[in-house]
Design goal:
With 506 residues, the chain is of the alpha+beta class. It folds into 3 domains: 206 residues, no CATH class; 117 residues, Chitinase A, domain 3 (Roll); 113 residues, Chitinase A, domain 3. Helix content is 51%, strand content 17%. It has a 4-stranded antiparallel beta sheet with strand order 6-5-8-7. A 4-stranded antiparallel beta sheet has the order 10-9-12-11. The protein is globular, with a radius of gyration of 29 Å.
Length: 506
């Protein structure tokens, strides 16, 4: 379980790499596997194709297609100088279908794929989706080739990941009481087998490894970062603002006339409230005064109306976002925004460049849910956290030592990284966790225990990771530079469809 309530912002290149990783996310156990042995003899390959064509003519197309032989042997396209089999294209095509929520075995999907696409250049939806799959394949072929030219190879860890993946697929086939071959065909298209799937995943991982190194290789001057900020300050500024919501007071089943009257009454109330707001403190006091009886407690017990250090992306309501980040907006501005069944009152307290430091932190999570764990379980989790911290403090007290403890003990999903969270942003983690991280007195090597809804966290403060706006601007520029690289390099890896072999895609 992670403590991050929402996904962190990602630039496009990171998202593409995350999608590749997601295809291998179910890998757990370890099991060996043999690599494919390829022949480099052109005469042998030519004989194979001739035999295949004869088989198609002699035994009938349907039986041979079901065997998967055409998909395994015929090239459906070339990318640069590399011939790509139809089975490889199917691997990308079937995953593209999955991304759109389409099941190839569903009759409704078949009808959807045959339907006109309405997109210029693509007769059917299938044509469009195949084109998307080919572009993904083209990029991976390109990146994998670039990796080999750069001397980058898969690691033993990567091979273990693939071995585990193959084992998990075999287990899934067993659970569904089908052969592994049939399971792979259903998941990845006609002709797929373990050998070809291993080749596809090896290419994908190699492409991913090079993509990460290439994207991280781009660097930028202070002037370039400042120019990025000035181009789009909305992406890098943060704001403090207040918001109060007053719902129209009408009962379930109310008539339209009753709802209209309730909305009119609510509007009169928020108009009166707006006129009395002079600063943040008056907004807070008025929120308590105008809140419904059921909401007054939370407004009294905490500064419930205040939102601090929020990026534009964190203000999810479009109307509020637009008003708060309007270029003409200034501290002290206030307004009313209507909704379907009530009104929001907004007040901008401050807007500034996000110059606070992000932080790197490690933690060890000992699970004990506040809402579902028993008192005994919570006490046991707390004691285990205290014992682990004591064990750490009795040792060398280094970051590496803490990372090893995290690998062995944390219930979080980042055990493999030694419990490391890099460049933690304000608003990214749950409150108690974040409060500890951003304590102004925090220094490298600090440790402690924090309880959250998830359990007890043994904390280790690594250090500052850079100013927030610089971090975001750097990622933006890296994303742009990487996309430019992809577009330019793709010109050296054009793809050409091989009509005969392409018939066996899908």
């Amino acid at each position: 379980m992670r403590d991050v309530p929402k996904e962190p912002e990602q630039w496009k290149a990171q998202q593409q790499r995350a999608e590749r990783k997601a295809r291998l996310a179910k890998m757990k156990a370890k099991e060996g596997g043999k690599k494919q042995i390829k022949t480099s003899n052109p005469l042998a390959r030519l004989i194979t194709v001739v035999v295949l064509v004869i088989a198609l003519l002699a035994t009938g197309l349907w039986a041979v297609v079901r065997s998967g032989l055409p998909q395994q042997k015929l090239a459906a396209l070339t990318v640069g100088s590399e011939a790509v089999k139809a089975v490889d294209v199917n691997y990308y095509y079937f995953q593209t279908l999955g991304n759109y929520g389409l099941d190839p075995a569903d009759p409704q999907t078949e009808a959807t794929l045959k339907a006109p696409s309405g997109i210029e250049g693509f007769k059917t939806n299938a044509d469009f989706l195949k084109d998307q799959a080919i572009k993904d394949l083209q990029q991976d072929v390109m990146l994998a080739d670039q990796a080999r030219q750069a001397g980058i190879a898969l690691t033993a860890e990567d091979q273990d990941l693939i071995d585990n993946y193959m084992k998990n697929l075999s287990s899934a086939a067993l659970q569904e009481k089908v052969t592994v071959q049939n399971y792979l065909i259903k998941a990845f298209g006609p002709g797929m087998n373990e050998r070809d799937l291993r080749r596809c995943t090896e290419r994908l991982l190699l492409a991913d490894r090079y993509a990460g190194e290439k994207a991280d290789s781009f660097t930028f001057t202070d002037a370039e970062l400042q120019a990025a900020y000035e181009k789009s300050p909305d992406n890098y500024d943060i704001i403090d603002y207040r918001v109060f919501y007053l719902a129209a007071d009408y009962k379930t089943g109310a008539t339209d006339a009753e709802k209209t009257k309730a909305m009119e009454d609510a509007k009169k109330s928020v108009d009166a409230m707006l006129g009395r707001i002079t600063d943040g403190e008056s907004f807070r006091e008025l929120s308590i005064e105008y809140a419904s009886e059921s909401d007054k407690v939370q407004y009294k017990n905490e500064d419930y109306s205040l939102r601090t250090s929020k990026h534009k992306s964190e203000v999810t309501m479009t109307a509020q976002n637009t008003w708060l980040f309007d270029a003409a907006r200034k501290p002290g501005d206030k307004t009313i925004i209507d909704s379907v069944s009530g009104y929001y009152v907004l007040y901008l307290e401050a807007r500034r460049k996000a110059e606070y430091q992000r932080v790197d932190v490690r933690h060890i999570l000992i699970s004990a849910s506040r809402t579902s764990a028993t008192e005994e379980q919570i006490s046991a989790a707390k004691k285990k956290a205290e014992d682990l911290l004591a064990e750490y403090q009795a040792g060398s007290k280094t970051e590496d030592a803490f990372a090893e403890l995290a690998k062995a003990n944390t219930a979080d999903s980042n055990a493999e990284q030694g419990g490391l969270y890099e460049a933690v942003n304000r608003g990214q983690m749950v409150k108690e966790f974040e409060d500890w991280c951003f304590d102004p007195a925090r220094k490298t090597g600090d440790t402690g225990i924090v309880q959250t809804d998830f359990g007890f966290h043994i904390m280790y403060y690594v250090g500052p990771a850079g100013m927030d706006w610089v971090f975001n601007a750097t990622n933006t520029l890296k994303g742009e530079a990487y996309q430019k690289y992809l577009e330019e390099e793709a010109e050296n890896y054009p793809y050409t469809i091989k009509t005969f072999g392409y018939r066996f895609v899908g």
